[in-house]
Structure formats: C-alpha cells, structure tokens
Amino acid sequence: MLRTGDLITIVVYFIFTMGIGFWFMKRNKSTDDYFKGGGKVPFWAAGMSLLATAISSISFLAYPGNAFDSNWSLIIPGLMLPFAAILGAFVFAPFYRASKYTSAYEYLEGRFSPGVRMYAVVLYLIQQVWRLGSVLYLLSIPIEIMTGWSPVWVIWVVGICTTIYCFVGGLEAVIWTDVIQTFVLLGGGIACVLIIFLTQGVGPAFVFETAIQDNKFNITANTDFTWFTEQTIWVLIVYGLIQNVQEHVSDQIKVQRYCAVRSDKAAKKAVMFNGIMCIPVWFLFMFIGTCLYAFYQAMPDSAIDGVNPDKVFPHFIMTQMPVGLSGLVIAAVMAAAMSTLSSSMNAGATVLTVDIYKRYLSPERDDRHYLTIGKLMTVVGGILMIVTALAVSSFLNDAFLPISFFITSLTFGGLAGLFLIGFFSTRANNKGMVLGLVATVLVTIYLALSAQGEALPSWLIIPEDWRSPTHKFMIGVLANVAAFVVAYFASYFFARPPDEKIQKATFWTLKE
DSSP for 283-299? Predict the structure, then answer.
C-alpha cells in the first residue's frame, strides 16, 4: 500500500503541474498562442518537450523490463532517431515554419487535394484517440501494482488533471510541464540506479560483472539476413529509421514544436537536442533493467519468480526504495504518461479545429472564436481519452496487445510515404497519390491480418498458407514503401501537377 510520504510527494507533483497550466492561462490570447506557444518558446524547452513526449510511461517500464529479461537489442530502433532528426532539423522544420501552417495536414491539401488531406486527418485522429486511451490505460496497471489504487480511479484522476492543464494553458503549458516532467523522469531513474549501487552486497562492480558475464549489454540482436521475416538487427534498423522519419515529417506534435520557437535556427537546435538526448535517456532505462537483474541475482526475491518482467521495476520501487523517493518514482511514471497525453491532446485539438471545424464547418470566423473552439476540442479530446481508457480497461484486458498492434498498424500506414513523396517529388500528382493510398491500405490490411494469425475473430483470419511471413515490425515500413513507390510511378500516367501545386511545396522548389 502507498505510504504517507509517497502520497505527499505525488500530491505536490500534481499541484505543481496544475499550477503551470493556470500560470499560462492568461497568455493565451490567440490561436497562435494556444497552438504554437506564440512562437516564443526557448529551443531547449521545445527540445525537452519532444524528449518527454518520446518517453511514455510504457518506455519507463518496458525498457527496464526488456533489459531485465533479455538484453539491450530493442534499443536499436531508437538509435535511428538522430538520422531522422537531421531530416527534421534541416528539411521539415524550415519548411513548416516558412509555410506558416498551423496543422501539418494543411500542406497535403495544397500539394495534392482536400481528399488526401482528409485521409491523413482521419488516420491521425483515430491514431491519437487510441494512443491517448491506451497510454492512460497502461499507466493504470503499474500504478495499481505500486499503490493498490483502482485502475478506474487512476484513469479518472490522471485524465481529468491532464485535460485541465491542457485546456487552460495551451501548448506553452504543455511544453513547460514537459520540461518539469523530464526532470522528474530523470530524477526517478537515476535514483533507482543509485539505490542499487549503494546496496550492500551489490554495488557498481557486481552490476557490471554480472551483466558482462550474462551478456546483458548485447545490442546486436540477430545479425542474419532473413528477408525481414525474423526480428533481426536489420528489421530493427529499418523499422526504427522509417518510424522516426514518419514522426518528424507527419506528426502534428513535432510540427507544433517546430513552430513554437523563435527562429529556424532555434527549431534546428530543438530537434537535434531531442535527437541526441533521447539516446542516453533510453540507455539509462535499459541500464535500470540490467541493474535490477544484478540486484535480484545478489538479493533473490521469490516475489519476482515467474512474473511478467514489466512488473519487476514496480515491485522494486515499492519494496526497496525509501519513503518519499518511491513517491518521486511513482510521480515519474505518471509524468512519463502525462507528457505524452498532453502533447497528443493539444495536437489532436489543433487538427480538429484547423482541419475539420475551420476548414469545413465554420470558415471565415474571427480568431477569438477559433481559440474558444480549440479549448473546447481539448476537452473533447480529454473525454475521448478517458472513455477509450475505460473501455480498454473493461473489455480488452487480455486481448489488448494484439488489438492495439492491429489498430496502430492500420492508422500509421503510409503517412511517411505520403508526406515524403510530396516533399521530394515534383512529378507526383493527386491521382497518383490516390492510387498510392489505395495500395497502402491493401498492403497494411494484408500484413496486419497476417501478423495477427489466429488472434482475431474467425472472419478476419487469413489461411496460414496465404499469410505473409514478414515480421510484424515491417508492416508500417512496407505500407510507407507502397505509398511512395506506387504514387510515384502511377503519377507518370497522368498530367504533371500545375506549377501552383509544387511552388514552395517541395524540397526542390522551396525557395521559389
């Protein structure tokens, strides 16, 4: 059960977080303030916000769990982030800043058509609703283990608090709470390592000796080339590269950070700050898992025998850390989730306001009206988040992971290919892009159904002989390849796009 000192630490964290939201409330006088932070956020704060968003509560627990149970090989996709960050810093950030777009998807209408824009908007909104609900639900599981609180109660409290500070504070509140949450995250992680290092009978020497002896630092994975049918190092590299590029070119969260800082130079610094700093942070949480492995080799505990590796870290927090410090780590788990939730909520509200309400339902209204709608959309996002999390908690318990993977695969399919062909091809046109999206949907559905095997309703199961042997990590990769390749070659069957469609809309014509 939760101790009084831990409870006080958690309450102080929540009060401080809410206070930041209300502090920035008076500064939101326009949609530019609410959705872009007024373009005056320091680069390091925007970079730390990107860092906090990248480290969800799932990473906080899954990385240590994976390192405890196996090795560090699953960090390989994260190591591709700096390469994607270079593209984000020197290509995508300057473009979005020059375009003055509030939403990333406004670009797609100008480059292709309203239909292509709406395709991406619908996918993104479904993706964000699922992401919000699933992150909030998955947060409730370790919190229940560590505190004994009901998952439903955790969903309501964290969901309402996150919605309130997003509603009143806008993007600036989200970014500055992300900064605080990053320090809480790092403080909690470092505290765990220090506790293990200072435990009599363990210590740094024993941790490193045990890890080296049992090959716990291995990050090479399987180096065989199997045409992407197994989880090899090549699958992890390609998956990580495409996934990170997709986020930097099409994720509204990234686009808002590009535009929240004062200059192009500051945007480049923010993106590269995140691209570089994420690596040591991910290594830290992998190292926590290795430390836990060594700790329980030296201090056997029957309570962890045969349990899910993801539950070992929460068990350590509640049994080995002193009062107050364990409360800090619980707050860090919440901070990891809330930084992801708040960023997704503000990004979703931006897309709902700009791409749907302003574009189709009520154009040509004054800015104050759209500011009010933006705040209302934040509340809508909070409600959808809580409802989705409660639904997952009630109905999808054991089946959560396969269904989550299936939904994520469908909603991510093709967005990177869609944006990349718009940026890097002057020949791509709307009709070719539509054919590319059709190919993307078909490829995504086929690969996702193949990957799920027998874990789906009978009417969705593909006969075993017809299933693709491709590893599930390659679904998003191949969907994006299909979008790019089919759209590019199909475009040659139709007329070149008019000059106004590509002027200042591609990498090659950006300065025209």
Answer: HHHHHHHHHHHHHHHHS
Helix (H, G, I), strand (E, B) or coil at 462: coil
Note the pLDDT tens digit of each residue in 53-84. Answer: 877 666 677 788 888 888 888 788 888 889 99
pTM for the full model? 0.83
Last residue of a domain, one of 352, 369, 391: 391
Residues 295, 301, 307, 310: what is their CA dihedral angle, to the nearest 10 degrees?
A: -30
The single-letter code of the amino acid at 145 is I
- Contact between 129 and 377 (Cβ < 8 Å): no
Q: Which of 369, 391, 413 is the last residue of a domain?
A: 391
Burial label for 80, CB within 10 Å (0-12, 13-18, 19+), is buried
Per the rule left: phi > 0, alpha: psi between -120 and 50, beta: everything else, 445 is alpha
**Cβ 144 vs Cβ 385: under 8 Å:** no
Q: Answer whether 294's CB lies under 8 Å from 207's CB.
A: yes
The full length of the chain comes to 512
At 183, is the secondary structure helix, strand, or coil? helix
Domain that holds residue 503: 399-512
